[in-house]
Amino acid sequence: MEKTSSAFWKMLETLYATKFLANRLVLKQCLFTFHINECELLRDHISQFITLLNDLKNIEVHIDDEDQAMILLCYLPSLYKSFRETLIYDRKNSRLKSEGSFVG
Predict the structure, then answer these.
(1) pTM check: above 0.85
(2) Using CA atoms, how far apart are residues 30 and 101, in angstroms rounded to an integer?
């Protein structure tokens, strides 16, 4: 019985490791190719994005908060271009002001 159990466990580990790697690659591909259609509701897009990030987190893929925010901003449709640029560049200027490097 012990041989059968250990052989079965070994087989499960092998299958899981293969699926784990494949799952990680598929989820990363989904993240890198994620996009939103102009007609799609923004809240649905953000919900899908958060679900994808949570799925990646569950398999121990870490994406820091700043990168998550930048990825989400870059995936917004062109309709949100001025919004995206305001958030990106205003944040950069705010950081410069707080560090004393910005003279305004």
Answers:
(1) no
(2) 39
Q: Which residue has the tokens 């993240």?
A: 31
User: Which residue carries 């939103």 as its tokens?
Assistant: 36
Rounded CA-CA distance 63/24 in Å is 13
Q: Give me 28's structure tokens.
A: 């990363």
The string of pLDDT tens digits covering residues 40-61 is 888 888 899 999 999 898 888 8
72-101 confidence digits (pLDDT tens): 888 888 888 898 899 888 765 655 455 544
| Contact assessment for residue 77 and residue 36, using Cβ atoms and an 8 Å cutoff | yes
First to last CA, the chain: 77
Q: DSSP code of 18?
A: H
Token reading at 92: 């950069």
- Hey, how many other C-beta atoms are within 10 angstroms of the C-beta on 64? 8
Residues constituting the chain: 104
